[in-house]
Amino acid sequence: MFKVKIITPMGEYTELDATILNVTTTNGMRGILTDHMPLVAMIDIGILTIANEDVKPSYRYNYATGTGMLYFHDNLAQVLVETIERSDEIDLTRAEAALKRSESRMASIDKHNIDVERAKRAFRRARNRIRVKNEL
Fold it and tell me: Which residue, 46, 73, 121, 126, could crosslink 98 as a Cys pair with Cβ 3.0–4.6 Å?
């Protein structure tokens, strides 16, 4: 078992004991188990899963994450992310509205002075939140 600390710009989000940590990195999905070698990885917009099968009852939490960094050393995973929401915290109506707004912005990129990269990131974040919420 190892400790997972999730930290956002607002401060510590949560701290959990885990047997498995799966995270979306810029190089694809990474799985972390107890006694994993030291690791530094860039987190991409995606899913982060924390599970602990050594406790009764066991648990598995899915989160929608923004970009950030993962540091793993000596059975401590520090997850520093700009945004994170556990699946049961996601407001599906709000996420769907954000997806529609981002699609509208991307459709009007040629007509208006739209920040293309910002619009793409908003689209990816909204789509990711919907995906995580629907995986319950």
Answer: 126
